[in-house]
Amino acid sequence: MLIGQVIDTNSAWMAQELNKWGIPLKRRVAIGDSREEILKTLEEESKLADIILITGGLGPTADDITKPVLCEYFGGKLVVDEGALANVKNIFEKILNRPMIERNLKQAEVPDVCTVIQNKRGTAPGMWFEKDGKVFVSMPGVPHEMKGMMTDDVLPALPKHFKLTNILHRTMLTAGLGESFLAERIKDYEAALPSFIKLAYLPNYGMLRLRLTAMGDDKEKLASELDRQFALLLNQLTDVLVTDEDLPLPHVVSKILKERGKTLSTAESCTGGYIAHLITSQAGSSEYYKGGVVSYANSIKEDVLQVSPQILEATGAVSEATVIAMVKGALELAKTDFALATSGIMGPGGGSVEKPVGMVWVAVGNRENIIAKQFNFRFDRQRNIELTANNALNLLRKFILEQS
């Protein structure tokens, strides 16, 4: 995790769930399998927070040192927990159908100063400690196991130990106005927000989410004021609003197509099927998405999408004429109501003076009308692809709404 080979998804999920329970997250810390670092971090975090949640280091290998270090920190010794032992034996004998070795049996060892949290999804038990009014919970690093333990045991137990506050959010998604320009537009609104409501700017690949967060004890009063402030903010941003819900752009497009009973096809060159991936990642996409063509080579544009060789020769693959022809080809091939096409130069090579890296053409349309737009991005290959996908989906969103 420290060197980037493993991505930390646990802390992001935990932060979201804690927020729902009215527990704000103060810090997220990643440390290595070092006794000194673990002890130092436990001491530091106990001075900053009431609840310290720990994941990882509970496996059967030599680098998993969390349990003995926790014994040292809390002044205990390792003992076998009979419930955990029975769980390990059951998994190996009845589920995995293979013999256990001594290393596996050690999974049932826990500090004698903890309350054991049985692992319903794996072998390593969780451990609940209390010290100086603070709660420490150690859980497996395997996301599936940690989530089960958090959901079933840890989160329901925390309100019994602490008085929790209310944390409410309202989020909108905008496009077409940069963070600094948008902040300048609403600076008077932001300055007038009540002290218990905060505004966060969350930019991501050409999109900007604005999140209002309210914290307090009176949930009804909190919700009423949050709704009022959210409506005021919406009123100032109608021209750049994508959705007034906390939804990703592919979901927004999915919702619009399903509500109107319309179908979509795609013809992708530079995005290599990434837009199709985003669309089909949405549940229920089979209702409106018929399919797509990854026409990376000009021969596929010609043979499958019926793009004229004369267009490609005269204007090149990255051109307005080509993406318009690709949309026509996709509409004819898939027999859909709408189609989307992309063609560009993602980099790092392949650019020229006339068509530099980051130049992209996007087209969207139906059988009556097709529009095309040129974009010029300036980032690395992956970010250029993601920016192209977001801008293409937003162009499609606006086109569909304008046809209504």
Keywords:
alpha+beta; Molybdenum Cofactor Biosythetic Enzyme, Chain A; Alpha-Beta Plaits; Maf protein; four-stranded mixed β-sheet; 15 helices; 15 strands
Provide a descriptive summary of the structure in words.
The two termini are about 50 Å apart. With about 400 residues, this protein is α+β, with helices and mostly antiparallel strands. The protein has 15 helices and 15 strands. It folds into three domains: about 10-160, Molybdenum Cofactor Biosythetic Enzyme, Chain A (3-Layer(aba) Sandwich), CATH 3.40.980.10; about 165-245, Alpha-Beta Plaits (2-Layer Sandwich); about 250-404, Alpha-Beta Complex (Maf protein). Helix 1 (about 10-20) runs parallel beside helix 6 (about 145-155) and helix 2 (about 35-50) packs across helix 3 (about 65-75). The model has no long low-confidence stretch (mean pLDDT about 95). Strands 12-11-13-14-15 form a five-stranded mixed beta sheet, sandwiched between helices. Helix 11 links the parallel strand 11 (about 265-270) and strand 12 (about 290-295).
Largest sheet: 5 strands, mixed
Q: Give the radius of gyration.
A: 27 Å
E-strand count = 15
CATH H-tier superfamily of the largest domain? CinA-like
Tally of separate domains: 3
CATH class call of the largest domain? Alpha Beta
CATH topology of the largest domain: Maf protein
Order of adjacent strands in the largest pleated sheet: 12-11-13-14-15
Q: Give average pLDDT, whole number.
A: 95
Terminal Cα span:
48 Å
Helix content: 40-55%
Total helical segments: 15
Helix- and strand-based class?
A: alpha+beta
Order of SSEs, N→C? HHEHEHHEEEEHEHHEEHEHEHEHHHEEEH
Query: Residue ranges: pLDDT <50 for 5 or more in a row?
Result: none
Examine the secondary-structure arrangement and name the CATH architecture of the largest domain.
Alpha-Beta Complex
Strand content: 15-25%
